[in-house]
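It is worth pausing here to work through a concrete case rather than discussing structure prediction in the abstract. The textbook approach is simple: state the sequence, then state the predicted structure, then interpret. We follow exactly that order.
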Amino acid sequence: MSIACLVYIAGLYGYEYFFNKSVSENFKYTYVTVFSISCVILFCVAWWHRKNPAVYEAVITADRFIVNYPGSKMWSFDIKVADIKRFEHRNTLSHAGDGIGKSGVLLHDGRFFEISMNYGNNIKEMCESVKIANPDVSFPKKVNQKVYGSFAKDYDE
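Step two, the predicted structure:
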């Protein structure tokens, strides 16, 4: 993205050169300043990620389902495959509309562990792998919806 910012700046100067047209100095100053600052920030972010690599890991064995999300205890868990009731998609509905959807694992004791979709996870494939060790696990197509307001409803157990 940092390189794309440089391409945009070059594009402005290329436009002026090849089409023999000029843009206002205020626009050019603002345009070049914003894209230059963005270029520096994005380069620093890329450099930091290069120096501090993180590893996402999802492991499914016959006994355990383990997810290690780099830097997040909320999205990391280690649970027994036998404790899994089902995989599901969850959402909330309120006067403000739909909430942010979540996908994850519901345990028999009612706890829900969200599986982040940031690393291209395929929940269906994870469920199929868990089903090998625990065939009772289900994955309903219907989204489990919690509703707020006059028609209040909690998530389905």
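Step three, interpretation. The chain has a mean pLDDT of 92. The two ends are 44 Å apart (CA to CA).
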